[in-house]
Amino acid sequence: MKTKLLVLLIICSFSNLYSQDSIPKIKKYWIDSGIGITTKIDDQNYLAFNMSLNYVQNKAMYKLRFLGVTEFNLFGQSESVVTIGALIGKHYSNKFLQISFLGGLGIAVNEELTTNIIGSTGSGCFSSSLYETKKSTSLSIPLEIEFFFKPIKFYGIGISLFTDINSSKPSFGILLKSGLGKFR
Hints:
Elements: H1 2-21, E1 27-38, E2 46-57, E3 60-71, E4 80-93, E5 97-121, E6 128-152, E7 155-166, E8 171-182
Antiparallel strand pairs: 1-2, 1-8, 2-3, 3-4, 4-5, 5-6, 6-7, 7-8
């Protein structure tokens, strides 16, 4: 009886060792946000805003990205594109630096101003016209290259080159980003 229990205990301990060995060793997660500019779209530079959830397991990186691209217009309506994308890619990191190459699929919602004026707001120098808007939805292909400097364990600051290829308003730009979470 004691021999059977000993054999069973040895088998159970080896199976636990095997299962612990198969658990991925590197897991990182963080949230980041950024602000930046895009290249010329319709002969204008646009502002870009970003918020992302990131997860790294070994060398694979997964990202859920929200990207908003809008005209810079203080006193009136502006055209905009909002994209929500799921990206996957490779992640390379050491103690203080990391670089990521990502691509994926997303949905882009475009809000475009028409030529029909439906009213006005303000007065004098600050007056502006209100236009009808036309919304459209399309598939997008988000791509991103990200560089992060990690001065401490839970904080990173970086630069991101991004593109969002869609049928309504494709964009390419650069973001300055800041993130909090488990970077190292």
